[in-house]
Sequence to fold (454 residues):
Amino acid sequence: MSDKPELKQKMAYHPLLLGGIALIAGALLVFADAGTRDQIVERQAEDLRASLTQVVQDKEHDNKLLEDTVVLHAPLEFCDYKTGITFYRARLQGKIVAVSYRVIAMGYSGAINIMMSVRRDGTIMGVRVISHAETPGLGDKIEAAKSDWVNHFSGMSLEKESPKQWAVKKDGGSLDQFSGATITPRAVVRAVHKGLLYFKAHRAEILGEATDG
Amino acid sequence: MADYRQIIRDGIWDNNVIFVQMLALCPLLAVTSTATNGLGMGMATTAVLLSSNIVVSALRDIISQEVRIPVFILLIATIVTLIDLGMNAYMHDLHKVLGLFIPLIVTNCVILARAESFASKQSLPAAALDGLMMGAGFTLALVLLGGVREIIGSGTLFANAALLLGSSFSFLDMRLLDHYRGFLLMILPSGGFLALGFLLAAKSWLDHRQADRAAALARSARVAAINAMDDEDDLAGGDRT
Fold:
């Protein structure tokens, strides 16, 4: 029997224990991260590809959308312009026919992620809601699976529709609102309109053409 | 020596996380708009409970009393992050549905409660069984609640089950009520509270009925015993005369 305190009672034991476990946990996480990173990146690319094919049909282009991109850093409202906005360009026989990009609307309960594609002439090719947290049964009619509301965007442009028409009918525009949910469609319309204005303002950069040519 | 049967009973019924301890109601109400989501969340939570109970029980002799809480939290957070990464890589579709709630398992008070009150004091097999059974009880509650809300709310049961369990389980995906327009309230959080209330009432009723039966049984046994004694008295009296 010694009068030295038992190992567990020593002051240094506690920080060493905590530190040791933190070290082991950290090492485990590093390994797990390294082991799953490629898988996760691949899954996310698949998601992106899936959402792109919803707005640009396969027959409209013959290039790989994920590999033909241009990133712009000019701010677009509600979009994360710290990392830039990525434009995925669809080409048919080398010529750009349309570009797709993501815009964000602030809906009734948080961000609504929207993928939209615009033809070179500035008309909308397609709009799809990628993810949202709107009220099921009311605001979720923005999903293509629940209602064909988003298809009404196809063919719209800044030239054909006046700025006043870029709104829900309640606000004097040309798009339906849903009974019981006005905020959601209003936000989506606003975001798509802003996205189109952005395309118009930066058309030359997006299409990679010289402005003076 | 731990009583394994008691652990199983406690986990699934007598001390059910949801119906009796009423812990972890936040993830419960958030994910149970369908039975499939409930099952997925339940399985993820069970995996975390099982692993954290095993790890905590295995380390119980070296973990000192003073730093046990931060150590438990650290262990639980690590396990949850590992499961989150694994699900994101290998069960990506389900991860998209539950993704938001997986990191929240860290703060699920049940995990820490079992680590602190059970696993840190019990042998490894007992702790593992407790984790499994508590998780099973939690999953049962999630699936029950999800099922009730899904049937009433949208007329389906186990929608998108194939997403969770693979295409061989797509037979689970049922549309029970054709042309049913849905009852929105049940999908919304308020419907979750309502359904939970009714389920709690049902469990309480079942337990009461069982207790009443047991009491009635005991009473009749006592009456029979008294009658038997009376008979003996009669016999004895008969002998005397």
